[in-house]
What does this fold into?
Amino acid sequence: MQPPTVPHLPMAPPGKVICCGLNYGDHIAETGRERPAHPTLFAKYSDTLIPDGVDIVLPAGLEVDWEAELAVVVGREIRHVTPDEAASAIGGYTVANDISVRDWQRRTLQWFQGKAWDATTPIGPVVVSPDEIDPVAGVEVICRINGVERQRGNTSTLVFDSATLLSYISTFTVLRPGDVVLTGTPGGVGMATDPPTYLADGDVVETEIPGIGTLTNTVRLTS
It folds into this structure.
């Protein structure tokens, strides 16, 4: 009998995982914030990343939310580069979901503690090369919960596109091959609904970007 297949990330564990919040106009509006003059950045660890098909396991009682995102994989080392130079350093694109623990996120003005829970950020299922999709022209970013569409945005409406983000980040820290940058989520997150809606035990989260693929991960809230 063959041993069961163990899912793997579509890339080696990155040295840096940097995320941009508040990067779609509709998401900025639903959070009641002003359009930012500079990217709103926070970091995760590689320990947060899980592949397609792996459960999102968290303690029961948390306010767990979804955030579908386009992720950029860095292809070569860059430091203090222009947007054009950053664009040429993009190694590929993939799908991610910045699963967020909102009650922890709200504990302070810093978001980190609500964003960096171990093994909660699906990424994959594959990395496509930069010539396979064009996020500047626009690709759809979609999230479904139990088959019901909750988010659908288009990367053409990003405040800061992929190259701009990489250029900006490279000003203060080196980016190396395999590093990952999450570009933000469109409107439709659970905390912005009335009343707020959060993920429950057994919920199936599908995160899709046509041209890349779909992540399917089940939420498991344990006592």
